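Here is a typical protein record:
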Amino acid sequence: MLMGGYTRVGEKSFTGTASGGLNTVFPLGRRVVAGVGLTAARNRQPYRELLPGDPFEGLPDRVITTYHNSLYSLHGFVAGRLNLAPRLELLAGPSAGLYVVGARERSAEAKVGFGLWSNLTYRQLWGSRFNLEGLFHPRLLLASVPVQDADFRFANQRLGVWDAQLGLSYDLRKQP
């Protein structure tokens, strides 16, 4: 599935932004699927913050007026399949992944996160093998381990993140 949409991070200096994603789903049976997904989101946001300088190195304080934030994710999921109508299918289940979140003005860090991956599929768009996909993926990124010698942008914070994306997929299975 090739997706595009909106990602929101629950932090006042990193609000919503456009995002893109790529998800692959593998059937594990008639009612269960597993998959892996990638998501990328970047934004430029005005935000004022004063960062104190290092007194041991004689560095002055600096003021940041704009953040260039980024969020990259690699996540896996297992989902149940529910047919709502002849061409309408719902996939929903837990997800877990590794997320790299940060800003260009400060360091980026890797966080572990868990969430609920859900996808609504309208099959055989215009009688073809293409499908219309709608994805909603809320998740919670856990606080990272405290580090003394780094200045991570989102250090020691739990972050709530959600994606809402639309896209297309191509069905490799032969249709009856």
